Amino acid sequence: MDAPQSARAALRLAPWVVIGAVVLALAGGGIPATLSLLSLAAREPVSATTGVDYCFGESWPDNANGGGIGRLPFVRWLKSRMGPHAVYALDYTPPPDTGCVTLGLLPALPARPGERADWTIAFGTVPAEMRALIARHDRAVEVFAPGFALQFNGRL
Amino acid sequence: MRELAGFALLQALLALIGVGSLRAVGLLGAGVRPVVVGLGPAWLLGTALVGLGLVLALVLGVPFTLTTIVVLSVIAAGVAFAAAWHRGVMTERVIDAAAVRPSRLWPVRVAIGTAAAYAGFGAYAVARAPIQADDARIWSLKGLALTYYDSLRPEIFLNPLTAVSHHVYPLLQPVLEAALGRAMGRPELRLFHTELWLILIASIWTAAYLIWWRRERPVREQAGVALLALVALTPAMVSNIWTGHADATGAVLLAAGAVALGLWLDGAADGHLWLAAILLGAAANTKDEDMIGAIIVLLAAGAVLGARDRRTRLRLWLEAVGVCALLILPWRIWTATHHLRDNVTPPLPRALTPRFLLARAPELRRVGMALVTHTIGEWGWAAAIFVTLCAVGLATRTSRRLTAFYLISFAAIAVAMLWLYGTTPISLSLLIPRSMSRTVNVFMVLAAFASAHLLSTLTPRRRRA
User: Fold this and answer.
1) In which domain, by residue range, is A13 found?
2) How confident is the model at residue A9 (pLDDT cuts 50, 70, 90)?
3) I need a surface site. Which of A24, B327, B335, B453 has the fewest CB within 10 A?
């Protein structure tokens, strides 16, 4: 059904009312905020490596105040030791930010429960079995720092 | 250099598939100029088709390699161009409305130049952003795993230790990220932000193309383009893409699909319906919220059609629903066969019972307040314009059916989000601050796109003969 004549006349104004509202919205600060965000991103880029490791320093429920940034050297050391397609088991205390650690260690993969892992990672606390190997100076275990070590589960 | 070449070649391939597909459904004419005008929609459609095809291939166990990506793309392009040739829709005219009046040519050129400069600057800026928040722990984690490995490795996709990545979440965004990584020869997660940015720009382009260019509307009737442009300037959207979250991607695909469906409801050619089915299918494969949104939008269209009892169109609508279901099902079947459940999912069917909902009244009230706060705070302009245009449309009977379609879709999606948040077992103290600002995108982008379409119906139209 056609709109009445007066309604049609009013409708012709509608686009301009909308444009006015949009202009008001622009003045409201949305666009400056967006341009500011994009400018900041353009001026302060991160490298490819830093981009992927960024989450270690990010405040997150499993990573209070971005404390995981302190573990980053260990994660990089692990990657250099394990090789690209290793399967690892994580032995940790306290629980790390598993999503971020998994991303950081890719292409190495976390073992599923019950699955045999090529490597065992002590992430915070060294388990008793690994401590015994360290005490025996077993070459299967490498210590990065107190509480942080890597054990190779295959044959040397 | 090899990386950039890979990036560019992939985009060209996606656009080629889209050009063929748009021609196949009669939405793009022959010649250089129509292709230039329709490049955004073509690229978006190509991206959606390849993404959906790769999700299906992964679920079926086809190795996810560069060869697979290229073969799938070439087959898709071949089928699309063959269908277009068979259909014989190569002579359709697409007239740039601005060309009608030479005096308006320069303002239009300046506007297009400004938009292109902004799109280019945005693409450059977001390509330098870090991988963070849920993107690092969900989307890019899966995307990187698929870049390194050619299958859904159980260590990532089924491992209880990686449950934080939400195994049931749809796979379109990680698949696109991995496809980009493989095309570039090595993972470059930061550059995927640019891909997300292009999806935003292409979705806006698609809506503008469908509403105005294909309908030859003069410049003075194109005020709604400003609404679409404002979506790309809204801080909530840009920050969402900068952080790499999937919310913006799903929301723009859903909104573009809804506009295509809205145009079909308004009498446009059936090609709009098939485009809508693909875009809604892609949205449903991006996030669970968008799957709910896609289903709601399709049902709203069915309700509006049913009210008029137009059987021919109802049959076509049913076919589109079938296409969309086929696109949604592969990933859902895969998660079901692996007995995957998510800790965010409301306890069904109990969460739908009145007793359960009454018991959750305080949570629902809290979520309602948060939804309203974030909607007004981040999308106030879109909410105000959408409500005004709906009121005008209903009161003046100018486009009642169309208004009803968008209003039902908007309201039902908002209620669905209220229900999702209000019934989830996850603590709202954790969930609302972390995700609500992103979740409102799913219905607010739809509101902005719908407003652009509704606005175009308020002025007398001049359709092609």
Assistant:
1) 5-43
2) low
3) A24
Asked whether residue A90 falls in the same domain as residue A65, the answer is yes
Cα pseudo-dihedral A15, A16, A21, A23, rounded to 10: 120
Digit-coded pLDDT (tens) for B35-69:
999 999 999 999 999 999 999 999 999 999 999 99
Does B431 contact chain A (CB < 8 Å)?
Answer: no
For residue A101, give how far its alpha carbon lies from the nearest alpha carbon of chain B (Å).
9
Give the E-state strand segments of chain A in sequence order.
87-92, 109-110, 119-123, 141-145, 148-152
A146 and A70 within one domain: yes
Query: With an 8 Å Cβ cutoff, is B299 touching chain A?
Result: no
Of B131, B223, B384, the CB nearest to A51: B131
CB within 8 Å: A30 and B153: no
Q: How far apart are CA A8 and CA B139, in angstroms?
A: 49
Of A61, A84, A106, the CB nearest to B144: A106
Give residue-wise pLDDT tens across range B355-371. 999 999 999 999 999 99
Q: Are B317 and B301 in contact (CB under 8 A)?
A: yes
Look up tokens 């050297």; give the residue: A73
Mean residue pLDDT across chain B: 90
Assess whether A14 and A84 both reside in one domain: no
Q: Does A89 touch chain B (CB under 8 A)?
A: no
Chain A contact present for B420, CB below 8 A: no
Interface predicted TM-score of the whole assembly (ipTM), two decimals:
0.89
Whole-prediction pTM = 0.93
- State the nearest Cα–Cα gap between B451 and chain A, in angstroms: 10
